TrEMBL record:
<keyword id="KW-0813">Transport</keyword>
<dbReference type="InterPro" id="IPR003593">
    <property type="entry name" value="AAA+_ATPase"/>
</dbReference>
<dbReference type="InterPro" id="IPR003439">
    <property type="entry name" value="ABC_transporter-like_ATP-bd"/>
</dbReference>
<dbReference type="InterPro" id="IPR013563">
    <property type="entry name" value="Oligopep_ABC_C"/>
</dbReference>
<dbReference type="Pfam" id="PF08352">
    <property type="entry name" value="oligo_HPY"/>
</dbReference>
<dbReference type="GO" id="GO:0005524">
    <property type="term" value="F:ATP binding"/>
</dbReference>
<keyword id="KW-0067">ATP-binding</keyword>
<dbReference type="InterPro" id="IPR027417">
    <property type="entry name" value="P-loop_NTPase"/>
</dbReference>
<dbReference type="InterPro" id="IPR017871">
    <property type="entry name" value="ABC_transporter-like_CS"/>
</dbReference>
<comment type="similarity">
    <text>Belongs to the ABC transporter superfamily.</text>
</comment>
<dbReference type="InterPro" id="IPR050319">
    <property type="entry name" value="ABC_transp_ATP-bind"/>
</dbReference>
<protein>
    <submittedName>
        <fullName>Dipeptide ABC transporter ATP-binding protein</fullName>
    </submittedName>
</protein>
<keyword id="KW-0547">Nucleotide-binding</keyword>
<dbReference type="Pfam" id="PF00005">
    <property type="entry name" value="ABC_tran"/>
</dbReference>
<feature type="domain" description="ABC transporter">
    <location>
        <begin position="6"/>
        <end position="258"/>
    </location>
</feature>
Amino acid sequence: MPEPILEVRDLVKHYPLTRGILFKKQVGAVKAVDGVSFSLAAGETLGIVGESGCGKSTVARMLVNLERPTAGAISYKGEDITKLSGRALKAVRRNIQMVFQDPYTSLNPRMTVGDIIGEPYEIHPEVAPKGDRRRKVQELLDVVGLNPEYINRYPHQFSGGQRQRIGIARGLALRPEVIVADEPVSALDVSVQAQVVNLLERLQGELGLSYVFIAHDLSIVRHISDRVGVMYLGRVVEIGTDTQIYDHPTHPYTQALLSAVPVPDPGARAHRERIILTGDVPSPANPPSGCRFRTRCWKAESRCATEVPLLAVPQALPPGPAAHPSACHFAAEKQVVPLPGELPPPPAPLTKE
């Protein structure tokens, strides 16, 4: 297997909780990210899903070095970028760019579109000569589907989808190899979401980009991702291909997450068992011992309170799509059980050989 372009190992980010005004004393820590590991291959899209507050955006900000990790390593082409600074870090940042979540607040309202997209050239003047920058900015506008003549307009003159395209153009300005997209379509209408996702897919094919794609919408993540990682309370609890995660989930949290996805087909909806989790999400300042999902899990036993489950392929599972990394002591596919008063699923139709 080729070496991954981006590799994350045991990534940790704790925010200190302090008490006092003049003499501050640390009394605890918010464990936003607590031991996340994954890898990203060249040309691959890794989707990251999970409920609000699980640490997805914190991971994204650490990947582009907007946040310094408390512990762990982020390797870009074999080099740990968490230890870089100055010119070395500046050079790496050319190749790892970010598309932010909110297209309304991530663009400076006092700058024109040309200044916003061309600002990376001011920081990295070696990428584009000064006299050539206007032409490059207009080319980027054309690449993302905007009129190059919009170069002198301001962000308030654009719709939400157009603003997100401007954010994507800014991320492409330095021709990066990796783009971290932090919920790039969550603030957009459904039709505009489809346009932006199709744009990202087209650019990936044309430019050979690698994506870390973070989103709440599980259908969008499945559409664009090659592999999917599921996060819960600062940790990755399950990771695998889109088929493994969506069709053969083995972690109870992933199963509950997928059971909440609306199904447009009434026939399929009637035969699906909805998993309702009890209790609230624990505080990241005081997470449960052992398995962090045990306080809401219907499979939890005494072992779950004392042993931290490893993110690994369960040995008890037979070879097949269900055999993928899952951080659960009792990882297994959930059997579909009809709800009371409903008919069982119809048998599969016979096929003539």
